[in-house]
Amino acid sequence: MSAASLKLLAAVGLGLSLTIGPTALAGQTTLTGSGGQSLTTQTTRQRTGTSLQFQRSTTYPSGKTANTTGNLTGDGQGGYSGTATHTNRQGTANTYEIEGQFSQSNGTYQHQGMRTGPNGRQVMVNGSGTYGNGQFSGDRTVAFPNGQTRSTQFSGQRTGPGAASGSLQVTGRNGKVRSGTFQHSR
Fold first, then answer.
1. CA-CA distances (angstroms) from residue 159 to 14, 25, 134, 164?
2. Is the dihedral of CA 45, 111, 136, 68 positive or negative?
3. By three-state DSSP, how is residue 105 classified?
4. pTM for this model (two decimals)
5. pLDDT digits over 7-24, tens only?
6. In this structure, are residues 156 and 180 in contact, taking their beta carbons and an 8 Å threshold?
7. Is 13 buried (19+), middle (13-18) or exposed (0-12) by CB count in 10 A?
8. Which of 45, 14, 43 lies closest to 31, judged by CA?
9. What distance in Å separates the CA atoms of residue 123 and residue 98, rounded to the nearest whole number?
């Protein structure tokens, strides 16, 4: 599972947090690729009114980590905007402007977002999914400035209070398909 795939899943989680998330939440997600290698992400979120502060740390199979911190503000209508600073595994930090729109109704949701980097280049994210009766599924497409795309499909189920597991498939910019599983707990 690539770091970019993880970022994509996290972006949707942030949209959900602004809309339906509890005041404070911490969790851990482990993604395991078909080759058996895993990465683990620790996330903490603190919501106050329509504002969300988050911290995320991802540990890769090599033992190196990447960290992201950010602040987002919701507009009360499903829209949100803010900034996030990401420090990659090599220690390089960049700050991004983030804006998007999230909506949900009758067991479905939709998410559209845009991330603008320090160089002005924009990455677009679109996703949708369903949830209910302990089951969930969804898909995401990321469009890069060079016209390439990466898509992710996932499905899973609740396995207990604050816990879920499932599978995902990512089609990369080069057309290569990767699959894996995830486990989440809070």
1. 21, 18, 8, 5
2. negative
3. strand
4. 0.80
5. 444 444 444 444 444 556
6. no
7. buried
8. 43
9. 10
pLDDT digits (tens, 9 = 90+) for 136-163: 999 999 999 999 999 999 999 999 988 9
> Which H helix or E strand runs over 11?
helix 3-20
Domains and their CATH numbers in the chain:
3-185 (2.40.160.40)
Cα–Cα distance between 19 and 110 in angstroms, integer? Answer: 12
- Per-residue tokens: 41: 């992400």
Residue 47: partners with Cβ closer than 8 Å, 6 or more residues away: 17, 18, 21, 22, 23, 24, 25, 53
CB 98 within 8 A of CB 113: yes
* Rounded Cα gap, residues 141 and 153, in angstroms: 9
Distance of CA 68 to the CA centre of its chain: 12
Strand extents, DSSP E, the chain: 24-33, 38-48, 51-59, 65-74, 79-87, 93-105, 108-116, 122-132, 135-143, 149-160, 163-171, 177-185
Q: What is the pLDDT of residues 26-84, one digit of tens each?
A: 889 998 988 899 999 999 999 898 999 999 999 999 999 999 999 999 998 999 999 99
Q: What is the pLDDT of residue 23?
A: 59
